Amino acid sequence: MNKVMSAEEVVAQIPSGATVAIGGSSLSRKPMALVRALARSDRRDLRLIVNVGGPEVDLLLGTGKVAEVIYAFVGFEVMGLAPHFRAARQAGAVAFQEWTEFTVMAGLDATIKRVPFLPTHAALGTDILRVNPAFRTFQDPFEGETLVAVPALRPDVALIHVNLADPQGNGVILGDGHMDALCAKAAQKTFLSAEQILLPERLQTYGRDVHIFRTVVTGVVEAPWGAHFTGCAPDYRADLLHVQEYLRAARDRSAWSEYLEQYVYVTDEEYLRRLGGEHTLGERLRV
């Protein structure tokens, strides 16, 4: 089955109020082309699930799309804090649930295993149990020790960027897989964006690098530079110059409006042109 579609067709299947798990980690392999399409849409009240979030969370907060964020961390690593995330967190304008990296993965895994929670020692002795009422402690009925019950996380949609895909929905990840396979399996619908779409017989030559399987994928979008301005190892590095431009804009209301007009409310082709084109990006960011 051919599952190739456009980013706009992906967004059409994401209703307002949906719970959206987003793959990648921090400034690594975020599905930014799909996120920009979502930011351009009229969707509202989204519930985001991320492990280590970055520009995807900040952009969707900055365009008023988000009602709640479940996260272990959101920021721009050495480049600084996430301005819209910080402002929303301090103002209490959006609901936030602080998790840990492991508990986010455990919550997704609980959904995959079709159980309401998974037991773990994680978070015992930490303030996570104080600030997040979603977790419960209980006594192990066999040994009697105290454990933490991590509730299942049930995404309606997962958005994931991969290096390569085929039209059937198989996805190759050549760098760190992060928690993307868990997102894909836990979500009711999974959409991939890919640097390039290959014929199935070519994709299968990548063997163990096929991390996402067609059985859990609803649609695939061909999106060269689709993770920009995060990196997509080993194809290209994170664009730290553009990170700086984004952060400057996100801290100033008028500059933010200009940034959106320049880089978000445009087609993917125009986005690349305004960055200098694929050749210029390649010279600057190719590994």
Q: Can you put this structure into words, describing what you see?
A:
This protein is globular. It has a single domain (7-98, 154-285), classed as 3-Layer(aba) Sandwich (Glutaconate Coenzyme A-transferase), CATH 3.40.1080. Strands 1, 2, 4, 6, 10, 11, 12, 13 and 14 form a nine-stranded mixed sheet that branches. The protein has a three-stranded antiparallel sheet with strand order 7-9-8, with helices on one face. It has 287 residues and is an alpha/beta fold. Helices cover 34% and strands 22% of the residues. Strand 8 (136-139) and strand 9 form a beta hairpin.
Brief sketch in words of this structure:
The chain has 287 residues and is α/β, with parallel strands linked by helices. It has helices at 7-11, 32-40, 55-62, 83-91, 101-112, 128-131, 180-186, 200-203, 240-250, 253-264, 268-274, 277-285, and strands at 19-22, 46-49, 52-53, 66-71, 73-74, 95-98, 117-120, 136-139, 146-151, 157-165, 171-172, 189-197, 210-212, 219-222.
Give the DSSP E fraction (strand runs of 2 or more residues). Answer: 15-25%
| Sheet of most strands | 9 strands, mixed
| SSE run | HEHEEHEEHEHEHEEEEHEHEEHHHH
In the CATH scheme, the class would be Alpha Beta
Large-scale geometry: globular
How many strand segments? Answer: 14
Name the structural class: alpha/beta
Whole-number radius of gyration?
Answer: 19 Å
Q: Please, how many helices?
A: 12
